[in-house]
C-alpha cells in the first residue's frame, strides 16, 4: 500500500484491519540499506499478536526516493506522519533494528507520549566516531560511483553471521536482493543522516517504557560492552543475545526473535 505523507510517498504494510482493536500496535523500522522486507518473518509469525505496521523508509523498498540527507529526525517525522495519517493517536510499540533503532531513539526524543514500548535490535546509542564518519563519506562516494551493487558487496558479509553466510544460501540471497533494491538517494541520504546523528546515550536513562533489547551473538556492529551499557542505562531493560545470528537476528533466527517479542507482549501488554 502507498500513502502520501508531507513531502514523500511511503509504501507500507498494515496487518491491522482484521485484528481486535485492543491488541497493541508495533511499528517496525528497518535498518540500512534494507527495507520492510526484512520484517517478513515477523509479519508472518506475529500476525495474531499485534497490529504490525511495516513502512519502507524514504529511499528504500518501494517508497519514494527524495533527495537526501535523511536525518534520523526526518525519518522519525515520517513514521509519526504515517501513524497520524492512519488515525493511530494512541501510543505504539516501536521496534527498530540498527538504523531503525537510531530512528526509534529520535522518535522517542521527539514524541515520548506516543511510545508505549521499545524493542531495540542490533543498534547503538552513541554517535559516529570520526573514523566512522570518514567511512560514511567513503561509502557515499562508492554508492555514487558504483551503485547499490557495490554497497551490497560491502554490507552483506557484515550483516550475517559467518554460519549464516556459509550454510544458509537462501537467507543470503534474500538479504542480497533486499540490499540491491535500495536506491542511490536512499543509500546516500541515510549514510549522511547516520553520519550526522545525535548521540542518544544521554536519552537512555530517561526511557520510561518497557524496553526489550535483542542482539545476535555474532553481530559485528556493536561491542558486548556497548550493548550491556545500553541495558544498564535504560531502567528495567532486558537484554537477550541470540545464538547463530549476526546483525539481522530477526531474519537469521526468526523463531527465537518472535518468541522474545511474544514474551515481551505477554509480560507488559497482557497479550495472550
Ligand atoms: C544498519 O544496519 O542499519 C546500519 O548498518 C547501521 C550503521 O551503519 O550504523
The total of helices stands at 10
Gap between N and C termini: 29 Å
Principal-axis shape equals globular
Enumerate the strands of the largest sheet in spatial order, edge to edge or round the barrel: 1-2-4-3-5-6-7-8
Low-pLDDT runs of 5+ residues are: none
Main sheet properties: 8 strands, mixed
Name the bound molecules.
D-malate
Average pLDDT confidence is: 96
What is the share of helical residues?
40-55%
Number of strands: 8
Q: Encode the helix/strand succession as letters.
A: EEEHEHEHEHHHHEHEHH
General description of the model:
The protein has 272 residues and is of the alpha/beta class. Helices cover 45% and strands 17% of the residues. It has helices at 40-45, 72-85, 99-110, 130-159, 162-167, 169-180, 184-195, 224-233, 249-252, 254-269; strands spanning 2-5, 8-14, 25-29, 51-55, 92-97, 115-121, 211-216, 238-242. An eight-stranded mixed beta sheet has the order 1-2-4-3-5-6-7-8, sandwiched between helices. α2 (72-85) crosses α3 and α4 (130-159) crosses α6 (169-180). The radius of gyration is 17 Å and the shape is globular.
Amino acid at each position: 500500500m502507498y500513502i502520501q505523507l508531507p513531502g514523500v510517498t511511503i509504501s507500507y504494510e498494515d496487518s491491522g484491519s482484521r485484528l481486535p482493536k485492543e491488541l497493541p500496535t508495533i511499528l517496525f523500522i528497518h535498518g540500512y540499506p534494507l527495507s520492510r522486507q526484512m520484517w517478513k518473518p515477523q509479519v508472518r509469525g506475529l500476525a495474531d499478536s499485534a497490529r504490525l505496521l511495516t513502512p519502507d523508509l524514504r529511499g528504500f523498498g518501494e517508497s519514494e526516493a527524495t533527495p537526501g540527507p535523511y536525518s534520523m529526525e526526518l525519518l522519525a517525522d515520517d513514521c509519526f506522519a504515517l501513524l497520524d495519517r492512519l488515525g493511530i493517536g494512541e501510543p505504539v510499540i516501536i521496534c527498530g533494528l540498527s538504523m531503525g533503532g537510531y530512528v526509534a531513539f529520535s522518535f522517542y526524543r521527539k514524541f515520548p507520549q506516543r511510545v508505549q514500548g521499545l524493542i531495540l535490535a542490533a543498534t547503538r546509542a552513541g554517535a559516529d566516531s570520526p573514523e566512522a564518519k570518514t567511512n560514511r563519506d567513503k561509502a557515499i562516494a562508492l554508492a555514487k560511483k558504483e551503485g547499490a551493487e557495490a554497497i551490497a558487496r560491502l554490507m552483506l558479509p557484515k550483516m550475517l553471521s559467518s554460519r549464516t553466510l556459509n550454510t544458509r544460501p537462501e537467507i543470503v540471497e534474500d538479504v542480497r536482493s533486499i540490499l540491491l533494491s535500495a536506491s542511490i538517494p536512499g543509500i546516500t541520504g541515510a549514510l549522511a543522516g547516520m553520519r550526522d546523528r545525535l548521540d542518544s546515550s544521554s536519552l537512555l536513562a530517561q526511557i520510561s517504557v518497557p524496553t526489550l533489547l535483542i542482539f545476535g551473538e555474532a553481530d559485528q556492529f556493536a561491542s558486548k560492552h556497548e550493548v550491556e551499557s545500553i541495558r544498564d542505562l535504560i531502567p528495567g531493560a532486558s537484554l537477550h543475545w541470540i545464538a547463530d545470528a549476526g546483525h539481522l537476528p530477526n531474519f537469521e533466527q526468526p523463531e527465537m526473535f518472535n518468541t522474545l517479542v511474544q514474551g515481551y507482549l505477554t509480560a507488559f501488554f497482557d497479550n495472550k
